[in-house]
Amino acid sequence: MRFFLTTAIDYVNSRPHLGTAYEKVTADVIARYKRLCGVETYFMMGNDEHSQNVYKRALERGMDPLAYCDQMEQEFRAVWKQLDCSFDDFIRTTEPRHRAAVQKLAQACYDTGDIYEGVYEGWYCVSCEAFKQEKDLVGGKCPLHPTLTPEWIREKNFFFRLSKYRDALLKHFADHPGFLQPDARRNEILRLLDAGLEDISMSRAGQSWGIPLPFAPENVVYVWFDALINYAAAVGYGTDDSKFARWWPADLHVVGKDITRFHTVVWPAMLMSAGLELPRQVFGHGWVNFGGQRMSKSLGTSVDPVDVAQRFGADPLRLYLTKEISYGGDGDFTWERYEERYNVDLANNLGNLVSRLAAMAEKYRASRLSPPGSGGRLAGVVADARTRYQAAMDVYALHDGCAAAFEIIDAANEFIAETAPWALAKDPANAGRLDGVLFDVAEAIRIAAVLLLPVMPASSAEVLRRVGERTPVGELRFERDSRWRAEGERVIVKGDALWPRSDDAQGGPKGPPLHPGGGHVQSVRQQVGTKAVSPQHREDAGPQPHRVEADLQVGLKKESTLEEIPAAAAPTTPPAEDQRISIDDFMKVELRTAKVLEAEAVPKSKKLLKLKVDVGTEQRTVLAGIAEAYQPEQLVGKTIAVVFNLKPAKLMGIESNGMVLAASPEGGKPTLITFDETVEPGWRVR
Ligand code: MSP
User: Fold this and answer.
1) Is the pLDDT of residue 543 over 80?
2) pLDDT by residue (tens digit) across 284-322?
3) Ligand 1 centroid – CA 251 distance (Å)
């Protein structure tokens, strides 16, 4: 079995950001999963170099464009290496193999009669590198690049007869319902096809940066027509027929939602015209936003994936991108949420489990665990989770695959709590039972680590080493090695904490000093929060592992303290000049509008209401100390303001994820800040 997998190739006018990295990491997870399943895999990535912006950027830097692209290739490769992307091939569109493929395919379409000369007059967005119709623009601007003005161009172009392929494309979609996933994207493209297709320019006039048309070399191939051919070029189209026969068609193109149209309409039509097979599937993933905003250098909302990887290591980042964003939908990254997930999933959950097992194995069994296991429930949990994992990963529901692996980790932690090995160890009569419990936990960890190998390759390999797995990771196979094994002694290896809590170690294992937003919530809250709390007070608020809770306890320490703290601060004298905050400090606090979906009283609390709110990108539970001022039913449907980037905290056993804003007179009841119905959930308040 073979699997040929590609990502989009990136424009190199700027370095990768977290959004482009998302695509590469998730595609890498798929490639690694396929290899784990024993499938011979060819995973390719690359750079798209013939864009006008790339050319301009090179000139701005006073560099020859090719030398600039060479330099960017090194930068891109370094980033992908840091994120542990295991590509088998990396193509650049300035390579001779790509040029040969582009010229061959353009000639083939020309020979079919699908390319003709004409004049293009209309809009062009240089950042999309796309011809735009009036209806594509919003207020005269490209909606994806609202800070730029599209160019009006009129030039002699060669056109590709895209319109001719509409019916064939519709038939292809009908015959291959899985061709484009997820379904929402498929429906979008079907609507577009229903509306009809226009022919597209496939060349640009008067430009030197690009590949000359074989039949009219004074023109260069339009950058998208050029770029799409990279997938065929990489596996030998135009240069190596036997390689091409072996690998084409591609099994999966992983691309962003903004460019699925090029991949499922233009590219298939080009292939049909050239008489080549169509890719088997295209997956159009969603966007990763930063704090709810589109990632963009010009808007200052771009996140460097290397900064994130340096915070806790590449694997925590890979896990976040894969597990926290439902694959196919949009997702969000904030430093706070990243740190929170790191602490919850890795430091407290998996990392703690591995350390506990090693400590108990050493203490009670000199680190040697013997089968057959306890016969307890873990084997069953693992079997179910394994089935769910496989079903999810096979359809690229990567987030569900991760969740299934974490079910095993949760269950193992619960199993330790239920069976209490430390109590069993006290009575020699329980020796057999203790053996069994420890063996089961080791086996559950082993299988969870096998399932997580595609997502967290380096740390899963380390976990496997620690639980005594002797097969080299490259030789592990899903089918054989993710099944419960009740044989073979396990030699458990003790080691340093795999993922120290972010507040135990300065910036985590590999982290640089805390990144803005990565650990400053407390100080921000101290400056702008409802009540100043001394650092001493915060330290007293609770020992590890409850720092996250301690943060919100600044405002809502515990019920008794809550009685003393109004929901919002009463007016005080203006702060002294040196205590005022800068606009940057203020902007660290992300206030958003939220719609109350459900509200209920919190049992045994006079003050607290539990609200379920829609914050635009997700639904959250937020506790609010407003029960004395509002009946729950009064709140449903109201649009209120919440602090969006506050660390979660547990109050009365309920996790609160955010804080509502209200005004209160001294000692009086709070009044919520509300908005009228024209305001939608998720808008930023500033
Ligand atoms: N060069 C074209 C692709 C040609 S493929 C034959 C291009 N390049 S890009 O650098 O702009 O984008 C590369 C990929 O990153 C695209 O699939 C794009 O959708 C994806 N992303 C860019 N920003 C993104 C996010 N913020 N989030 C997720 N993916 C994002 O388009």
Assistant:
1) no
2) 999 999 999 988 776 778 999 999 999 999 999 999 999
3) 19
Contact criterion met (CB below 8 Å) for 50 and 210:
yes
Q: One-letter amino acid identity for 260?
A: T
Q: Does the Cβ of 258 fall within 6 Å of ligand 1?
A: yes
Reading the block at residue 457, the tokens are 């390759």
Which one, of 438, 443, 399, 398, lies nearest residue 420 by Cα?
Answer: 438
Going by CA atoms, what residue is nearest to atom 21 of ligand 1?
Answer: 20
- Ligand 1 centroid distance, CA of 10 (Å): 6
User: What is the mean predicted confidence (pLDDT) over 257-263?
Assistant: 96
Report the pLDDT averaged over residues 258-287.
98
Nearest atom in ligand 1 to 288's CA: 27
User: Which pTM value belongs to this model?
Assistant: 0.76
Give the strands of the sheet with 203-205, arranged side by side.
Answer: 203-205, 216-221, 212-213
Rounded average pLDDT over 37-44: 98
360 CA to middle of ligand 1, Å?
Answer: 48
Task: For residue 42, give the nearest of 229, 250, 284 by alpha carbon.
Answer: 250
pLDDT band at 518 (very low <50, low <70, confident <90, very high): very low
Q: Which two tokens stand for residue 173?
A: 């979609």
Ligand 1 close to Cβ of residue 49 (< 6 A): no
Compute the average pLDDT of residues 64-70.
Answer: 98
State whether the beta carbon of 90 lies less than 6 angstroms from ligand 1.
no
In order of 18, 127, 128, 141, the CA distances from 151 in angstroms are 28, 11, 12, 10
Residue having the nearest C-alpha atom to atom 22 of ligand 1: 20
Short-list 625, 679, 613, 683, CA closest to 651: 625
Per-residue DSSP letter, 404: H
For residue 668 the two structure tokens come to: 């009086």
Average pLDDT over residues 328-345: 96
Task: List Cβ neighbours of 298 (8 Å cut-off, separation of 6 or more).
Answer: 147
- The torsion angles phi and psi of 241, rounded to 5 degrees, stand at -60, -40
Q: Are 160 and 114 in contact (CB under 8 A)?
A: yes
**Tokens linked to 325:** 């964003």
Distance 22 CA to ligand 1 centre (A): 10
9, β-bridge pairs:
none
Please say if the pLDDT value at position 194 is more than 60.
yes
Three-class secondary structure of residue 293 per DSSP: strand
Distance in angstroms (rounded) separating the CA atoms of residues 212 and 231:
19
Q: Kindly provide the residue ranges of all beta strands, DSSP E only, lying in 147-272, ordered along the sequence.
A: 151-160, 180-181, 200-201, 203-205, 212-213, 216-221, 252-256
Secondary element (H or E) of residue 522: helix 521-528
CB 233 within 8 A of CB 240: no
- Ligand 1 pocket, residue 225 CB under 6 Å: no
Ligand 1, atom 25, lies closest to the CA of: 19
Location of structure tokens 């109004």: 566
Q: What is the mean pLDDT of residues 216-238?
A: 97
Q: Is residue 641 classed as helix, strand or coil in its secondary structure?
A: strand
Does the pLDDT of residue 369 top 90, yes or no? yes
Number of Cβ within 10 Å of residue 532's Cβ equals 12
| Residue showing tokens 């319109």 | 163
Nearest CA-CA partner of 332 in 72, 341, 423, 204: 341
Ligand 1 pocket member 234 (CB < 6 A): no
Residues sharing a CB contact under 8 Å with residue 680, sequence separation 6 or more, in sequence order: 593, 595, 616, 639
Q: Which of 388, 363, 573 is nearest to 482 (CA)?
A: 388
Instruction: Indicate the Cα dihedral angle 620, 624, 629, 630, nearest 10°.
Output: 20
Look at residue 573 and tell me whether its pLDDT is greater than 50: no
In which element (H, E) is residue 587 found? Answer: helix 583-588
